[in-house]
């Protein structure tokens, strides 16, 4: 509880940070090792990063425990520890996205748009937390300034809770479809259960933080350190340990192009389910409602193609793959023959050339007819 001269509102525990630094270091190292072993960096790269954020936050907290009057330790520790759970949330979004790539014909929405939509909004949460946490923890600021920071954190936590609600509904809809179709393998069932538990853990932690900031700095939750070690440190360690015991990389294919056939047994390799729309467009129209109206969804159903058609689709994708330079200079893929804007310009140019060629042919045909009439008249 209260400690004279401490900017933490209490005398910080000096043993607990060491314990959790060791626990998260072991967990993060195992995540990195399993990512290498299962070649699953694309899906699980952020697991070691999330652990590193938590380790850094506890390390700064440990330093603050020996210098309780230094405000910078409080601010840095708060920002780092608050930044870890949203990364764990982001990992769940990537896991669901990869599962939908694996069974694309039952996906409620495009797998890539699951990533761009939820990850993009999760990025907004990180920005709000980063800006709000340091204001809120900075006791040298006025109450009004700290309240602004607390409101930013509360807004972030509310957005996280809403995201997890939408995420849960999306996952449950897919789960129901897959169960009904009888295509859920044992590994996928395990992975979905792990994902649900992980999402629940992060949501519980989110609710704890929300209650803490709603009640304010004078509340027993904010001024009693035991709540932090239970609902922040311990619960997030359970989450990272869970993802280590049932590592996603072990249960998912290495590539997005591998998908499960409708028989629920055969694995096939396709071109991958691409979305050539700019990232900013996918954010505002994640379900591609305009594409549904135009019938674009029917054009992408590669999962019902023959093996020969799949091979042709893979070769076509390989030949039209964008270079690293093109991705760097045109990240939204606006230009070029397949670009969101460029393809319309190319189409108009081709239509113009065809029109010109037809006009020339018509002129030549007219001249030929006229020449034929002149010859007949002369005869």
TrEMBL record:
It is a multi-pass membrane protein. The keyword Transmembrane applies. It holds the Pfam family RTA1. It comes from Neocucurbitaria cava. It is found in: Membrane. InterPro entries: RTA1. This is RTA1 domain protein. GO terms for cellular component: membrane. The chain crosses the membrane at residues 15-33, 45-66, 154-176, 188-211, 226-246. Keywords: Membrane, Transmembrane, Transmembrane helix.
């Amino acid at each position: 509880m209260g400690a004279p001269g401490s900017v933490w509102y209490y005398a910080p525990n000096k043993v607990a940070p060491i314990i959790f630094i060791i626990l998260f270091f072991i967990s993060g190292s195992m995540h990195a090792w399993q990512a290498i072993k299962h070649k699953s960096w694309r899906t699980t790269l952020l697991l070691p990063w999330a652990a590193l954020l938590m380790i850094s936050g506890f390390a700064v907290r440990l330093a603050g425990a020996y210098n309780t009057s230094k405000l910078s330790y409080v601010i840095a520790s708060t920002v780092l520890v608050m930044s870890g759970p949203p990364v764990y949330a982001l990992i769940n979004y990537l896991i669901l996205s990869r599962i939908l790539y694996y069974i694309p014909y039952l996906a409620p929405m495009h797998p890539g748009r699951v990533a761009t939509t939820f990850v993009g909004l999760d990025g907004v949460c990180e920005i709000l937390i980063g800006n709000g946490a340091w204001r809120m923890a900075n006791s040298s600021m006025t109450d009004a300034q700290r309240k602004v920071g607390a409101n930013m954190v509360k807004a972030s936590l509310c957005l996280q809770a809403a995201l997890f609600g939408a995420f849960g509904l999306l996952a449950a809809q897919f789960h129901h479809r897959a169960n009904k179709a009888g295509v859920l393998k044992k590994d996928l069932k395990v992975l979905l259960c792990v994902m649900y538990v992980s999402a629940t853990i992060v949501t519980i932690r989110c609710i704890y933080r929300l209650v803490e900031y709603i009640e304010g700095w004078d509340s027993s939750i904010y001024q009693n350190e035991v709540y932090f070690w239970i609902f922040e440190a311990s619960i997030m360690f359970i989450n990272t340990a869970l993802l280590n015991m049932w590592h996603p990389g072990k249960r998912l294919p290495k590539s997005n192009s591998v998908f499960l056939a409708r028989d629920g047994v055969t694995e096939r390799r396709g071109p991958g389910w691409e979305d050539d729309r700019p990232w900013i467009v996918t954010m505002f129209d994640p379900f591609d409602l305009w594409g549904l109206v135009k019938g674009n969804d029917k054009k992408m159903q590669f999962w019902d193609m023959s093996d020969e058609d799949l091979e042709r689709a893979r070769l076509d994708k390989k030949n039209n793959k964008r270079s690293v330079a093109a991705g760097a200079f045109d990240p939204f893929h606006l230009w070029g023959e397949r670009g969101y804007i460029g393809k319309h310009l190319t189409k108009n140019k081709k239509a113009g050339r065809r029109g010109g060629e037809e006009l020339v042919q018509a002129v030549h045909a007219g001249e030929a007819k006229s020449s034929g009439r002149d010859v007949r008249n002369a005869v």
